[in-house]
Amino acid sequence: MPLPEPSADALLVSRALASLIRNDIRANHDWISFARFMELALYAEGLGYYAGGSSKLGKDGDFTTAPEITPLFGATIGRFAIDCFGTEPLRVLEFGAGTGRLALDVMQSLFKQGVVVDQYLIVELSADLRERQRGMLVDFPQVQWLSVPPTAFSGLILCNEVLDAMPVHLLVRQQDRWFERGVSLSGEYFVFSNRESDAVLAGQIPETHALPEGYLTEVHPRQCGFVRMLSDVLKAGGRGLALLIDYGFPAREYFLPQRKQGTVMCHYRHHAHTDVFYLPGLQDITAHVDFSAAALAAQESGLAVAAYMSQAEFLIAAGLSDLIGQISPEDAQRWLTQSRAIQKLTSPAEMGELFKVLLLSQGVDLPVQLLKFDRSYRL
To answer: What is the dihedral of CA 322, 323, 326, 330, to 10 degrees?
Structure first.
């Protein structure tokens, strides 16, 4: 199926970004890592996908996240926060808040249950999304935007679909050795080009002897660095919990021999494809999360891995079913709409099993009903 044509203005932005990336390649001896290419494609100032002005989320954007599907997602997280922190005044720190919908639903849920949100901090790199968030959250003066994370934080940290947008390195196995797949130029066109891999990067792939010739995969030093930063922030704050929700696998499933083309995907106007060089700056580029690597980074930094489970298990244990039960059966249209949304969030054939939840704790105990679903032994 052909992809939709961009507008003339969008095409100009993409061409400007492509030129910037070409200049970066030429300035670095005609080769950059895929992580560098992905970083520029997503975050180059004023031109990258998350740094430009295009609409990214919702029915008119490129993809839809769980908070956009139903307000019950954020309401369930609000209930979970009370189960963990009680009814004391709460501070929340959210990374990559999208349209602001999750923040709105979490705060409204807490307000309805009599919990005061003292402060809701948002770290957002996209100026476009920051403005959308300001419009969504105009009635909540406790919301503050930060350009960098705080050095210390006590409370609940939310990261919904944050790790998957962090640049990854590509590695390919050839002649029993690992090579890093980077980006070079053939004329004006971007092409893949391999160089022998750094031993540190290759060392992140377990049981390499079992992987076939030509096996392509990703490693995630940026994601691990982000988790180590969260660990430092929570340890400095003294008490808190980080909730990371994303699509991915533990290492034993991530590096299966049959997953030989990796997990990098592109999203352009609700079309998913694998051409990472298509219209730089106009499409999202993502990779699945290696949750084993993220959990290990947390542990090595002194943070406890409190639990790991599927999104479906987390939402059900945190009380999603109770929330749908509060909708009157007489309101048939609303009940049907929310029921379909819950099906999308929890069905193994939809988001329920592919999306996982990793909970990292600094002095906060999880509710018993949640621990019953813990799968951290699989990490």
So the answer is: -110
The secondary element (H helix, E strand) that includes residue 341 is helix 332-346
Domains of the chain in sequence order: 8-378 (3.40.50.12710)
Tokens 């989320």, located at residue: 57
Q: Tens of pLDDT along 6-60?
A: 999 999 999 999 999 999 999 999 999 999 999 999 999 999 998 875 555 445 5
Contact 49, 56 (CB under 8 A): yes
* Residues of the chain scoring pLDDT < 70: 1, 53-63
CB atoms within 10 A of CB 329: 7
Q: Say whether 271 sits in a helix, a strand or coil.
A: strand
- Predicted confidence (pLDDT) per residue in 75-132, tens digit: 999 999 999 999 999 999 999 999 999 999 999 999 999 999 999 999 998 888 899 9
Neighbours of 176 (CB within 10 A): 9
CB-based contacts of 163, cutoff 8 Å, min separation 6: 220, 223, 226, 244, 246, 248, 289, 294
Distance between CA atoms of residues 6 and 279, nearest Å: 9
Q: d(Cα 130, Cα 268) in Å, to the nearest integer?
A: 21
E-state strands within the chain: 32-33, 90-95, 117-123, 143-146, 155-160, 169-174, 177-186, 189-196, 216-219, 240-249, 265-268, 271-273, 284-286, 289-290, 304-310, 355-362
Distance in angstroms (rounded) separating the CA atoms of residues 50 and 129: 8
